[in-house]
Amino acid sequence: xxxxxxxxxxxxxxxxxxxxxxxxxxxxxxxxxxxxxxxxxxxxxxxxxxxxxxxxxxxxxxxxxxxxxxxxxxxxxxxxxxxxxxxxxxxxxxxxxxxxxxxxxxxxxxxxxxxxxxxxxxxxxxxxxxxxxxxxxxxxxxxxxxxxxxxxxxxxxxxxxxxxxxxxxxxxxxxxxxxxxxxxxxxxxxxxxxxxxxxxxxxxxxx
Length: 207
Known about the structure:
mainly alpha, about 80% helix
């Protein structure tokens, strides 16, 4: 891949990553509840889903999903339902001021955070459609395809990790002052609950 083309890819990847969405909300929520460092596990789960999307598109399955209203809608509504579920659970969760309960929340298993991040991104068929439009701009069919896909995937993943961790997860630290009392925790739970539900509803209704 030519350096100029790679720079364009990096710029596009950064713009995509900085666009707020379910992944950013999930990252900020993890940073608040489990801490900045441990929020990386949810971010890695989101990247695993991104890699799956790239592979699906590269294998041509993405074309079938994008062209099949039934398959597309099944995935879309499943993803929307999952985000709404996360939002309602967050909205209704009670403030955890007990030290033992707070410690348990901060020590959520890495696999649990990874799995939630995976499903948040995986159940988004619009990502497949996006990569169908995005990837061909940076792939040259006359050149070996595997190295190009590897470079594209690595670039997008690394950029997304950096943006999620050092922008959204760090940004969430500014809200930590609200976590020291029950009223602040309740406000944050409702804010992130509403955000999850809003993204889920948008995913369901926007075509």
